[in-house]
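Two entries, shown back to back:
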Amino acid sequence: MDLTPLSPTDRSTIHRDAQRARTDRAELYAILDEALECHLAVIWDGAPLVLPTTFGRDGDTLYVHGSPHAESLRLGSSTPVCVAVTLVDGVVYARALKDFSLNYRSAVIHGQPVEIQDTPTKLHALRTIVEHCAPGSWDYVSEPDAHDVGWTCVLALDLTEASVKVRNGGPMDSAADIAASDVWAGHLPMRTAFDSPIPSPDLRTGIELPDHIRDRRWPGA
């Protein structure tokens, strides 16, 4: 696994609020492993196109998938792309509106993805995505057949060129605003949690809720 510091290029080096940048690659992995959705950005017909999609990480490779007819994936396999992931951890209330903010952990990855063509590698990528989004499900349900695999496009994006930015804590009010204001200031933490599973209306009687769904907890919840 690549343990080189982040921000190896100018476009992946954070310049604004640089004190919030993180260079430990382990922090990139932690954000990607907790988030369930990313946003894939490509250029389509001369304009930016950003689409949400599920993903999975295996070492230093990020996998995204979708329909082979999806224009974004077809473009992504032939041009550089950008992938962004954000976890919101709270709302920051300041004494002045200009200092309101969010606490967050974010990652941005740049690169040229490669479309996976061979079936064994594609199956591995699909398993990675499924087990990231719904751990325990790949071995619980039937594997995709040849038709399903053939009708799925999977892109592999190397994580070499990436940046991580983190904000935490309370407001960054100026001394003048602190002295002049009588309003409450601080931050309101947020956390993500799963609710109780809801069975499908057409679920047959007697099928029990599997452990990997019943016992699932959000990281840090």
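entry 2 starts here
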Amino acid sequence: MTSPAGTVPPTAHVEIWSDIACPWCYIGKRRFSDALADFPQRDRVSVTWRSYQLAPDTPAGLRKPEIEALVEIKGMPAEQVRQMFAQVAGSAEQVGLDIDFDTVIAANTFDAHRLLHIAGDKREDLLEALFRAHFVDGEVVDDRDALVRIAVSVGLDADQVRADLESGAAADSVRADLLEARQLGVTGVPFFVANRAVAVSGAQPKDVFVALLERAISDAESAELFPAEDADGC
């Protein structure tokens, strides 16, 4: 539909709940970004990344390999965990991501989510850097020195970041995102919501995200859940 002359076309607002410790969120981010990059009306889409924690009880500073942590927490055999990770790594490779689960360290992601809220217009760049740090580089993303280094890599000021982390800044913003996720019934991530009316869950194929964007633009008032098949998520 063409907007009347002199009016601003309606904008689709996509909110994405994800966790830095979720590999399917990393994969879903890449697939969604590819869809948005090719979307003809991408300038009419605003994106807000929201916080979610898969394992909020993980002790900060645990520093255990993710494989070992899952064996302990989930009670799964180590070989089953390795097979599961190999399948995820294969899916990641298809979108150009080189996830190395042998280097992934279990972490509490609350401070990392705080940092994302603090990051302002660097937020998406920082999210990408945090995913890479956690899943590729073997960084401990609940270590504040590591978080400062990662923040500096995307152009944030080290002293300000450290001060914000020490002060507890943005903790309420993270908690608000977590509360909204519960209110929306989010039980797994990544979770994509357009205009608080249209939603898909999981690391969907690119064409599903394109359809989501088209639907969001054409019908921002719709309250109908987007009819997508289940996709992998955490």
